[in-house]
Design a protein that fits this description.
The protein has a single domain, classed as Rossmann fold (3-Layer(aba) Sandwich). The chain is built from 5 helices and 8 strands. Strand 7, helix 5 and strand 8 form a beta-alpha-beta unit.
Length: 160
């Protein structure tokens, strides 16, 4: 079994959190969302615990949490903070379980002035599961996103 998976999507609200919860309950696995925006509306960590039934101690706290439901770089900027990928390291929830890492938005979402979600994915070096809607527009986006993976020689484990 891999040490975990990075769940990303073609954009926001494509089902990454539900997919993460499904993976946590069926593998089983621990959960971590390193960057949470929109926390004023509740956290994805809380949703995954509720949907998957995993123990709260199997859901690691976020490295960064912002209330505004906007891109990570903008949410950080509005609070006077800046996200540093150097500070983000895989948590040790349970050494025996894989960890499901959920990204924020899609792979090209900016996390700071010069880095994107794809840079965090590369840094964590986990196999990727890519979520997308199944309608025509998002299907084309899925193709372009997966081609970007192929060009960069990243390991994409699944498309959903």
């Amino acid at each position: 079994m891999a040490k975990g998976f990075f769940v990303t999507g073609t954009d926001t609200n494509v089902g990454k959190t539900v997919l993460s919860a499904l993976l946590c309950s069926s593998l089983p696995a621990s959960y971590w969302k390193p960057i949470q925006t929109g926390a004023s509306e509740g956290s994805d960590r809380q949703r995954v615990i509720r949907l998957s039934g995993i123990a709260p101690d199997l859901a690691a706290p976020e490295a960064y949490v912002f209330d505004d439901p906007v891109s990570p770089h903008l949410a950080a900027q509005r609070t006077g903070d800046e996200i540093s990928l150097e500070r983000i390291r895989l948590p040790e929830c349970n050494g025996d379980l894989p960890v499901i890492v959920e990204g924020a938005g899609g792979i090209m979402v900016p996390v700071n002035r010069g880095e994107f979600m794809k840079d965090l994915m590369k840094r964590l070096a986990l196999p990727v599961i890519l979520a997308s809607r199944s309608t025509l527009g998002p299907s084309i986006t899925l193709c372009f996103t997966s081609m970007r993976y192929a060009v960069r020689a990243w390991k994409c484990s699944a498309w959903c």
